[in-house]
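Repro:
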Amino acid sequence: MWLNDFKIALIRQETEKLDLLLSQMPQFSDLKEMEEASYLLKEALRLISTLKDETKASQQQLKKNIDFLKSTQSDTPPTLNIKL
């Protein structure tokens, strides 16, 4: 059951569910289950690494966009001149 839930969370890229399942990892009864769990854990690590890299790239792009917007702003405060 745990292996199936882990596979589903991995396919759906549900990182919170993966974290929960990792904290509840059971003792596996045979070598086949252990090998499968090992493979799934490697895939989960690869997924987390990929998501981390994507997040870092997004943050860098956001920083560049913010820096660009700041550079295009006028330094003089806006004033309202009304002549009567």
